[in-house]
User: Which sequence fits this backbone?
């Protein structure tokens, strides 16, 4: 059976599974739609959290970034995993004990203010749409290659699938779909990694192969990659270009942004008890660690395979995978010296992303004609970072069923997180905006309908951003983390651990932190990208790390405003005390 047929079978079977689960677990009440009825087992919730957490950025793009930038890509590993530990230890159990449906619910009641709730809803929408853009882009990339359609068509197909099980099943349907998606995802990631680790290092454990020697020699894998890189004019793989300050700020932004992500936080509302929230956090960390500890190895294997397979290779002698990704528009080359060979060296081969001739014409060496080739360097090859993990099994010439499994895994990663984000958007609109503000007397049936309509509308907007993304997948997601770090994290942390923080301080902090971070990112990435360099950044902090500074601004503004505005009512202070005290213990409030 040929590879393309296997891809159709694997993708079709997984889609049928997701849709079947959605029909089986259709939400019949707002509680089932918002928090899956609050009865999810900790192990199942841990797997669902893992799938929700390991988005297209983790599965598709993270190893791709690491494979290109080397040491600098470690910020994603450190920030995302460290942030999850912060969330599990410091926030999740307390938010579960609070017992509401959404993060704006907590913000609105803790800060005794509808204005605070509305600001929180705005923050949710900003963060979630920024994040979901990366997921829909990931869906388009996978479809464009494996189903042989263009990226835009792939986004539309992904929208249809997510629409079905997110709108129909709500959190209940999404939870059990994500359990299935985690299983598909982890097998799709690990099996090729084990295969390639055996081929390159002779070690079946990728994490050990990453730090080991190349099979049949005494040369360490990373030393070999450093040598290959420097020969072609690239920097050493194990060296970095980012400053220590910027590395710290990006890592911190990703950490605290993780702890403020609403679609991850809401997962801890779906378990029966506070103790189950802690257990599911532990299980999720274990499930996440399997992929995250493998990612550096996958990145290294992919980079070695690419350099050895493509550099100085004759185009006519390349395997089918090169042509397939070229047709998808995610790989391109221009034979600048007309020698029929691909020169892959340091430098940008094109002005921006490749612009192909509309006639799909071929150059004299067989390449697709590109109309925006750069003329100031010798690099002839463009590789989209987001394809490195997906193309790795093909580059390594693994069996067709492994390639088909990778296609199903990439789609599972993007669809699982996209569904969680869209649900958060819909619940924020239907529950926090309509039910709690504009239409307080709406009945449950109408509220459920509003949630589904909001989800459908959110999918349309998400599809637009997937077709017109503001960057590559992991970069877009990094911005979402920055926005979460500068808005939600301080408000939630102070809401739990500082009972004297009042509504005026929290609202002022969220607005200032979000506005500062958003404006900084927009200016350097879209308004004036030519100025996007360390010489022009505040204190040398890149847009990816500015969320940390936004968080500090949030804290500072909140505390200053809090000092000059009325104190927190006593019943709210009692509420905060009750959240922090374990069940069965005697709280300070009870003692008095």
Assistant:
């Amino acid at each position: 059976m040929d590879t393309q047929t296997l891809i159709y079978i694997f993708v079709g079977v997984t889609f049928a599974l997701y849709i079947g689960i959605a029909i089986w677990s259709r939400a019949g009440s707002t509680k089932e739609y918002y928090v899956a009825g609050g009865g999810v087992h900790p192990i199942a919730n841990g797997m669902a959290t893992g799938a929700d957490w390991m988005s297209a950025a983790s599965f598709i793009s993270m190893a791709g970034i690491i494979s290109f930038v080397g040491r600098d890509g470690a910020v994603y590993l450190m920030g995302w995993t460290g942030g999850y530990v912060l969330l599990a230890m410091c926030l999740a159990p307390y938010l579960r004990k609070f017992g509401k449906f959404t993060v704006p619910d907590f913000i609105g009641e803790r800060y005794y203010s509808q204005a605070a709730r509305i600001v929180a809803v705005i923050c949710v929408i900003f963060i979630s749409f920024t994040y979901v853009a990366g997921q829909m882009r990931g869906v388009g990339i996978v479809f464009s290659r494996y189903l042989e359609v263009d990226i835009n068509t792939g986004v539309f197909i992904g929208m249809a699938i997510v629409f079905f099980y997110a709108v129909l099943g709500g959190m209940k349907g999404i939870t059990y779909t994500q359990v299935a998606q985690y299983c598909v995802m982890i097998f799709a990631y690990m099996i090729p990694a084990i295969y390639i680790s055996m081929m390159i290092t002779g070690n079946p454990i990728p994490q050990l192969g990453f730090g080991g020697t190349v099979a049949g020699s005494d040369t360490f894998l990373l030393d070999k990659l450093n040598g290959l890189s420097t020969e072609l004019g690239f920097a050493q793989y194990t060296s970095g270009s980012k400053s220590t300050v910027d590395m710290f700020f990006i890592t911190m932004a990703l950490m605290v942004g993780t702890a403020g992500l609403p679609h991850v936080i809401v997962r801890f509302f779906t378990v029966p008890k506070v103790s189950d929230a802690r257990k599911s956090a532990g299980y999720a960390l274990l499930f996440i660690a399997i992929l995250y500890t493998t990612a550096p190895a996958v990145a290294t294997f992919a980079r070695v395979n690419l350099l050895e397979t493509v550099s100085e290779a004759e185009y006519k002698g390349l395997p089918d995978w090169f042509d397939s990704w070229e047709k998808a528009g995610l790989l391109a080359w221009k034979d600048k010296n007309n020698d029929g060979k691909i020169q892959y060296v340091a430098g940008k081969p094109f002005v921006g992303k490749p612009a192909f001739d509309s006639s799909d014409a071929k150059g004299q060496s067989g390449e697709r004609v590109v109309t925006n080739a750069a003329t100031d360097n010798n690099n002839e090859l463009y590789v989209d970072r987001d394809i490195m993990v997906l193309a790795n099994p093909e580059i390594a010439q693994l069996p067709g069923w492994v390639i088909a499994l990778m296609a199903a895994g990439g789609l599972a990663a993007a669809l699982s997180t996209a569904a969680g984000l869209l649900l958060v958007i819909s619940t924020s609109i239907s529950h926090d905006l309509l039910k709690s503000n504009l239409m307080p007397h709406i009945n449950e049936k109408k509220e459920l309908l509003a949630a589904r309509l909001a989800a459908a509308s959110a999918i349309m907007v998400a599809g637009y951003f997937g077709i017109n993304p503001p960057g590559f997948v992991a970069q877009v997601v990094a911005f979402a983390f920055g926005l979460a770090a500068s808005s939600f994290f301080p408000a939630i942390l102070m809401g739990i651990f500082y009972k004297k923080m009042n509504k005026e301080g929290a609202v002022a902090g969220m607005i200032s932190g979000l506005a500062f971070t958003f404006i900084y990112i927009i200016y350097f990435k879209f308004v004036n990208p030519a100025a996007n360099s360390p010489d022009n950044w505040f204190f040398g902090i890149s847009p990816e790390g500015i969320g940390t500074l936004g968080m500090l601004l949030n804290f500072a503004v909140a505390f200053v405003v809090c000092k000059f505005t009325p104190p927190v009512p006593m019943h709210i202070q009692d509420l905060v005390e009750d959240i922090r005290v374990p069940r069965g213990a005697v709280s300070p409030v009870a003692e008095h």
Summary: Strands lie at 331-333, 381-383. Confidence is low (pLDDT under 50) at residues 584-592.
